[in-house]
Amino acid sequence: MTSRFEWATMDSVDPRRLADFWCGVLGYVVYEDKNGAVVEIGPDPESPDEQRLAALRGGPAVPNMVFVRVPETKTVAKNRVHFEICPIDCDQQTELERLLALGASKTDVGQGDGRSWVVLADPEGNEFCLTRSLAPGEFAL
């Protein structure tokens, strides 16, 4: 028996703003918005629920994200869990420029110089990494 990673939940001062940011980053859409208090996003649904459930049961799946309103801002210096994202249709520098335009910011968590990845923060300060590109011609097996 195994389980599947279905969604990640993040505390947020402004769930809709953070959901909109991550929709822009990942190409997701808003599935549900409970008056801005809870917002769920995920891949644009192209198949009926039973097909999506079968795919989820069949193997690793792309998780949804849920943003839940909390009264406090982020208080720790570095996340214990963060996302690693890879561009799929452009090089890393082009994707970095796009993410910065969406509202990401570069941040330092002690990673040092000369890394192949870039540490960024979303609009509420949650760190994530922009790693190598998976675009054709950029990534070789």
UniProtKB/TrEMBL annotation:
Database matches in SUPFAM superfamilies: Glyoxalase/Bleomycin resistance protein/Dihydroxybiphenyl dioxygenase
Domain Glyoxalase-like, residue spans: 8-131
Listed InterPro entries: Glyas_Bleomycin-R_OHBP_Dase, Glyoxalase_6
Cited Gene3D superfamilies: 2,3-Dihydroxybiphenyl 1,2-Dioxygenase, domain 1 (3.10.180.10)
CDD domains documented for this protein: VOC
Name of this chain's protein: Glyoxalase-like domain-containing protein
Source organism (scientific name): Amycolatopsis japonica
Taxon lineage: Bacteria, Bacillati, Actinomycetota, Actinomycetes, Pseudonocardiales
